[in-house]
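Field guide to reading this record: the first block holds the primary sequence, the second block holds the structure written as discrete tokens, and the final block holds curator observations. Each block starts with its own label. This record concerns 4-hydroxythreonine-4-phosphate dehydrogenase, catalogued under organism Psychrobacter luti.

BLOCK 1 — SEQUENCE
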Amino acid sequence: MQTKLPLLITTGEPAGIGMDVVLILADEGKLQDFNRPIWVTADSTAMQKRADMLVKAGVLQSCPLWKTVHLDIVANNFLEQMSQQTLDDHNNDNAFILLNTPCAEPVVCGQINIRNSVMVAKQLDIAHQLASNKTVAAIVTGPLQKSALIDAEIKLLDGTMFSGHTEFFMQQSGRDKVVMMLANQAMKVALVTTHLALKDIPAAINADNVRQTVQIVIDDMREKFGLTQPRILVCGLNPHAGEGGHLGVEEIEIINPVLREFIDAGVDISEAMPADTLFTPRHLANCDAVIAMYHDQGLPVLKSHGFGDTVNLTLGLPYIRTSVDHGTALDLAGRGGASATSLYQALLMANEMADKSLINRPLV
Ligand SMILES: NC(=O)c1ccc[n+]([C@@H]2O[C@H](COP(=O)([O-])OP(=O)(O)OC[C@H]3O[C@@H](n4cnc5c(N)ncnc54)[C@H](O)[C@@H]3O)[C@@H](O)[C@H]2O)c1
Ligand SMILES: N[C@H](C(=O)O)[C@H](O)COP(=O)(O)O
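BLOCK 2 — STRUCTURE
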């Protein structure tokens, strides 16, 4: 009998492939690999329809079995509604428990309907609450369409525009700073800034932000990856790390002074390096994590070495959150062609962290 806490998967944008990849893993029997209950948030009607489509398309051998729990998610007391009785699954044939998060309107594969974006945000809210009160061991997020939430005028807690799971969970958790890290077999890349327009990045590269990012990476590499003395390489912001100040001064004035504080404290970390040479095999072979200054400095390099086998995780949260590396792939929803490997890797990492991590141990 499974006694461990569940892993919760949010399927995200209903018109995308979030439900498809869950159903594919269920069909392959891979949701049982973790020896934990798997809970999934999705619209129950859309999930059934998607399963039927994928069976018809020959993607699934048969329609997986699951148990649906109907919650009044608008009532805000859904945690109380989730009595153990409703969630205990005595039928081992069920691949997962579906927490029904109803859409406002019927889902059409591949077609974004912003009236369904409230339900996408509600999934994140449910996930945050279940992880915060330790009802689930970890959150594993499927892809959402950021533009749909923005067009639906869904805001973050501080009233700013929705920009991603990372920022959503950070604000819900009351944290000032978390770190987006993507990891695959080839490398781990953490980012100082996340979903920011390129023109806004230089202003966000300040000493506090760099210092907090480095500290969170060190702490979580120790706590979540078991590396007591992680070796970290840091990219500069400018070409050639500023070329001695001729191509920008952020390295000299902001980044290196902070990095030297860590070096002086005995941390195995570089000063700012030119990103183009940092991401070469010789350097990558000798480091545990790279810190890049912005999203498209680090992530394209990482994804070119394993899109589909990469996990996105948020460091610095009070709970474990991992995610797929891909987006909504509207072109593939309900048709076949979607790979579920990233979801599987994200579940594996969440499960390993939940097994090892101090985060889920009861507070004493
Ligand atoms: N975790 C997340 O929530 C997340 C991550 C990345 C992008 N997004 C969002 O997704 C939306 C679409 O972004 P995009 O078009 O740049 O990226 P995308 O990943 O949705 O698609 C890029 C290409 O990769 C293919 N692809 C994606 N996932 C695949 C899979 N599992 N198997 C096979 N092929 C796959 C797609 O068919 C497409 O050709 C955007 O709104 C973006 O913000 C969300
Ligand atoms: N940068 C992320 C990626 O490439 O996977 C993606 O935008 C998702 O970000 P969130 O996890 O914050 O939604």
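BLOCK 3 — OBSERVATIONS
The longest strand covers residues 38-42.
The pocket of 4-hydroxy-L-threonine-5-monophosphate (ligand 2) is lined by residues 164-166, 295, 299, 312, 323, 325 (CB under 6 Å).
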